[in-house]
Amino acid sequence: MIGLRAGAATDVGLVRTNNQDHLLVASPIFAVADGMGGHAAGEVASETAIAALREAFEAGAGSDGLLEAMRTANRAVWDRAAANRDYAGMGTTLTVVARVGQPEDAKVAVANVGDSRTYRLRGDDFQQLTVDHSLVAELVAEGQIDAEEAERHPQRHVLTRALGVHPEVDVDVVVHDAQIGDRFLLCSDGLSREVSDSQIASLLRRLDDPADAAGELVSRARSNGGSDNITVVVVDVVDPADEVAVVAADEAADEEDREDPGKGAATAAVDAGGAAPAGGWFARRRARRAAGASSGSSGARVRVPRRRVLSVRVVAFLILLLAVAAIGAGGTFWYARAAYFVRLDGDRLVIYRGRPGGVLGIQPVVAQVTTTTGSQVEPYHLPALRAGVPEPSLASARRYVANLRAEAVAAGLTAAASPVAAILAAAGP
Ligand code: MN
Q1: Quick one: DSSP state of residue 105?
Q2: CA nearest neighbour of 53 among 37, 31, 73
Q3: Cα–Cα distances in Å, from 296 out to 26, 32, 283, 306, 409?
Q4: What spacing in Å lies between the alpha carbon of 300 and ligand 1's midpoint?
C-alpha cells in the first residue's frame, strides 16, 4: 500500500511576462505542462492539456488509462488549435506521475511528451526517468554534442515531440514499482536549465516537506536567473496513514493562512522568493484551481503561493515609489531652474536661467542677451564670467551686469588701456 503526498510551486520567472506553465496536483495524478505558442496560445495549450488529462484519467485510470488520457489531451489541444486561428501551431509538453492499479500494487506510471522532466530520488540515487524529446537531447544521445554544449546550443528549445501539434502523438509511458520514501520531481525546463541535477538532488534530500522543497527549488531557479517560467511538483510516496494525516493538517493551515494576511505574505516570500506580483498571483490561482478536487479524496498536499496580499503591498509600494520619484523629479527641475547666472558667451554677457552646466540633464535656458560686451567690464571679472557667475534672480543678474559696466566706467579705463587688462587680454582666448 502506498499513499502520495505532494507539494507544488510555479512562478513566471524574472524574464517572461506571462506564465505558460500549468501544473496538476489531483492525487493520484500529478503533472507539469509547459506551453508554447504566440500570445496567449502557450498558456491555452498547457491549460487545455492539463484539464483534458485530468478528466480523461479520472474517467478511466490505470496505466492504459494514462496512455489514453495523454492521447485525449493531445487531441484536445489539437482540436482547439484547429478551431481558432490565434492558436494555430500551439503545443505543450506534458510530464505525468500517476499511481496506477490498486494502492496495494504500489505502481507509479510516468508518462512524458516534450522536455519537461520527471526525476526520482530513491536513497542516494537521483535520476531522470524521462527522456527529453528535444533536438539537443537527440544530438547528445547520438554523441554529436556533449551535455555542456547542449546547454548553450542555439536550438536548445526545439522540441522533437510535443502535445497538440499533430492529431496523433507518441507517448512514453513507463510503469515503476514504487517504494515508500521515493520522491518524484516533475518540473518544466525553467528549473532544469537553471539548477543543476546535483543541486536539485541535494535540495530534495535536505527538505523533508514536499511543499518546502518545491518552493525552494523555484526560489533557486529564480536566483540563478529565472530566464523561463518555473514549475515544480514534488510527490512523495508515503505510508497511506501519513497521507491522510497530512491532508487534515494542511487544510487547517490553509484556512489560517487565508485569514491572516501577514502569514500569507510570509508564505509567499518563502515559496517564490519575492515573485513578480501578477505572474505570481495567476500562478497561485492556477495552482489553487489545480489543487481543488484533490482535497476531497486524495492525499495531495499543496502549498500554494499566496501572493494576493503581497501584490497589494507591492502595488502600494510602487505607488509610493512613483510618488517619491515624481517629487524628486519635480524638485530636481525646480532646483535646476530656480537660479540664474551671467556668462560671457562670445563677446556678450548673457543671463541664463538655470545652473552652469545644467543639473541631471536639465540645461539652462537664455533669459536675456545683454548689450554688454566683455570689453565693457573690468578684465579681472572675465575668468569668472566665462565660467558663469550665479545670481539668485533675474533682477539681481541684471543689477550685476549694470554694476559691472558702472565699475568699468568709474575706473575710467577701457579694457585695452588697463595694464592688467592688457595682460589678461593677451592671455585670453
Ligand atoms: Mn519552459
Answers
A1: G
A2: 73
A3: 10, 21, 22, 21, 100
A4: 24
**Residue 321 cell numbers, joined:** 515609489
- Identify the three-state secondary structure at position 227: coil
Cell 555542456 locates to 148
Residue 276 is given by DSSP the state -
Cα(266) to centroid of ligand 1, in Å? 27
**CA 212 to ligand 1 centroid distance, Å:** 22
Does residue 79 sit in helix, strand or coil? Answer: helix
Q: Please give the distance, rounded to the nearest whole angstrom, from the Cα atom of residue 222 to the centre of ligand 1.
A: 13
Cα distance between residue 45 and residue 81, in whole Å: 8
What residues pack around ion ligand 1 (CB closer than 5 A)? 34, 188-190, 228
User: Separation of 34 CA from ligand 1 center, angstroms?
Assistant: 5
Q: Which residue in this structure is represented by grid cell 499533430?
A: 166
- Global pTM value: 0.59
Ligand 1: centre distance to CA 159 (Å): 11
Helix (H) or strand (E) holding 43: helix 41-59
Strand partners, 117: 187
Find the distance separating the first CA and the last CA of the chain, reported in whole Å: 96
pLDDT of residue 102: 82
Compute how many other C-beta atoms are within 10 angstroms of the C-beta atom of residue 16. Answer: 19
pLDDT tens for each residue of 171-205: 999 999 999 999 999 999 999 999 999 999 999 99
Ligand 1 centroid – CA 255 distance (Å):
32
Q: Quote the ligand 1 centre to 35 CA distance (angstroms).
A: 7
Q: What is each CA distance from 416 to 239, 406, 421, 425, 428, in whole angstroms?
A: 105, 17, 6, 8, 13
Q: What is the pLDDT of residues 276-331, one digit of tens each?
A: 333 343 444 444 444 443 333 333 344 444 334 556 777 788 888 888 888 888 88
